[in-house]
Amino acid sequence: MEGLWEIVLHCVKKWFKVVTMQRILLSGTFDHSLDAKGRVTLPARYREYFRGGAVLVRLRPDEPCIRVYHPAAWEEYDSRFIDPLDTFENDDHSWRTRLIYMNQDFVEPDGQGRVLVPAKHIEELGLGGKVTIIGNRTHLEIWNPETLAALVQQKVGNHA
């Protein structure tokens, strides 16, 4: 009987950790650099949050950034928005899912909190040298600073 309680306690602790991790809201703007090996350092305040790994994904072609999710937050996103898609009978849904997972990578930060950005994303987004990382509630986003500035200006200009 003691072994059963140990298992239950372990599961509760694991569940509590996942629930706690999912509730963090990511925010802020951070100027960082992409090194010659294609690594970028995650913002210091979020390094512990991503210590166990990160999911890097390009979700939409009209969104020129890389999203960085905690694995539990990605699982929640997937369950809510991707899993309900009908990939068997709807060709658009099938391709949407395929493209998302073709552009997704799981990475583990190194001891300095750096993650390796896939070369295909670096090339597609014109990343090099300086990058801007922003918090967007459930995830971080890695942007080319010029692209982000131009889009912010465009969006602000449209709402002025």
Secondary-structure map with pairings?
Blueprint: H1 2-22, E1 29-34, E2 39-41, E3 54-57, E4 66-69, H2 71-82, H3 91-102, E5 104-107, E6 114-116, H4 119-125, E7 129-136, E8 139-143, H5 145-158
Antiparallel strand pairs: 1-7, 2-6, 3-4, 3-5, 4-8, 7-8
How would you sum up this structure, described in words?
The chain has helices at residues 2-22, 71-82, 91-102, 119-125, 145-158; strands spanning 29-34, 39-41, 54-57, 66-69, 104-107, 114-116, 129-136, 139-143. Strands 1-7-8-4-3-5 form a 6-stranded antiparallel sheet. Strands 2-6 form a two-stranded antiparallel ribbon. It has a single domain, classed as Transcriptional regulator MraZ domain (Chemotaxis protein chec, 3-Layer(aba) Sandwich), CATH 3.40.1550. Strand 3 (54-57) and strand 4 (66-69) form a beta hairpin. Helix content is 41%, strand content 23%. It is α+β, with helices and mostly antiparallel strands and 160 residues long. The mean pLDDT is 86.
Order of helices and strands: HEEEEHHEEHEEH
Average pLDDT reading: 86
What's the architecture in CATH terms?
3-Layer(aba) Sandwich
Helix content: 40-55%
Neighbour order of strands in the largest sheet: 1-7-8-4-3-5
Look at the helices and sheets and give the structural class.
alpha+beta
- What characterizes the major β-sheet? 6 strands, antiparallel
Tell me the number of helical segments per DSSP (H or I, 4 or more residues long): 5
* C-alpha end-to-end distance: 66 Å
- The total domain count is 1
Low-confidence parts lasting 5 or more residues at pLDDT below 50?
none
The shape is globular
Q: Give the percentage of residues in beta strands.
A: 15-25%
**The CATH topology is what?**
Chemotaxis protein chec
CATH superfamily, by name, is Transcriptional regulator MraZ domain
Overall strand count: 8
What oligomerization state is this entry in?
single chain
CATH class descriptor name: Alpha Beta
